[in-house]
Amino acid sequence: MDTQVEEVNGVKEPLSKKQKKKLMKKQKWLETKQERRKKEKLKMKQKRAVAKAQGLSFGPDRKKLKQCTMSGSSCKQQIVVDMSFEEFMMEKDIGKCAKQIHRSYSANRRVDNPTQLYITSFHGQFKEILSKNIGYSNWDLHYRTEFYRECFRKEDLVYLSSDSDNIIDKLDESKVYVIGGLVDHNAHKGLCHKLAVENGIQHARLPIDEYIVMKTRKVLTIDQVFRILLGVTQGKSWKDSFLEIIPARKGATDKDGSPDNSEEEQVEDASKSSSCNSVSTPSAETDVENGNEVSAPKDMETRLENIEHTDPSL
Ligand code: SAH
Predict the structure, then answer these.
(1) In testing the pocket of ligand 1, which one of 79, 101, 160, 188 has its CB within 8 Å of the most ligand atoms?
(2) Which of 112, 163, 224, 287 would disulfide-bridge 193, Cβ 3.0–4.6 Å?
(3) Domain membership of residue 260 as a residue range
(4) Ligand 1 and 95: CB distance under 6 A
(5) Which of 161, 169, 176, 193 to probe ligand 1 with, by most ligand atoms within 8 A of CB?
(6) Is the pTM of this model over 0.90?
């Protein structure tokens, strides 16, 4: 009574009561998706109108968002998210990766001079998840199916890793900074660093210890790393960028002793500039965590749907 054979996406398999319930819920969610989007759009429109009537600002100016594209940006800093780690992740973590990349993308769209943001090894399950849940094809983002090493000159690449003994001093526009597209809950400690070393790719960590004191480990999420770099390309100091982006629960404080501030706010303002430079050396106490979010909401699709509303391209 609990199980029966049912066809799910063309595959015949027995489903438990729980699975059937879950499937029905998902189908219902998909069926009502468009209707919900319409309602939400209307709600947002009304909220925007109310805010406008009261002279309040309601999110970023959409016209401005459309103008601030990568091609028109004075910032030529290339930043890559290397999505070649699918085999190391469970499906739900690939979903988290998608969410983190969406956040990175949203942050990039909200600054005056977006960085040149790439996703490499863009195929497989990750691409499927993005295309199912989010209108990724409209995003102002450089998608590459190739592996990152095939897209850039080897000598220009700097792989970012909290395990590296090298420290980024200043950002260098002639370099291409690579962020590992990996959400692993600390299961693959040091993987990105190991691969960079094996492949003779330069590597470096963010100068966290040099500017702030952190109570916890220094492995950040993809979007945190991206947003810190973004802040710096827009003229912020490393310290301000760290204190703004690193969540309060990680216990980040100014080296001079003052407490940190916000948690996971978007980098929205900031002026320009894009100072550049090299990678210096040691002093690393690498403390590897996982770089993941603390809580994982139950339903990935719901989560992706939620962030959809902040997507400036929609
Ligand atoms: N175990 C993974 C951790 C993934 S965290 C690993 O082997 O790296 C996701 C990515 O964020 C990392 O691959 C790295 O590129 C970047 N990252 C996280 N914390 C960082 C730090 N403190 N300095 C430089 N890059 C960091």
Answers:
(1) 160
(2) 163
(3) 76-295
(4) no
(5) 161
(6) no
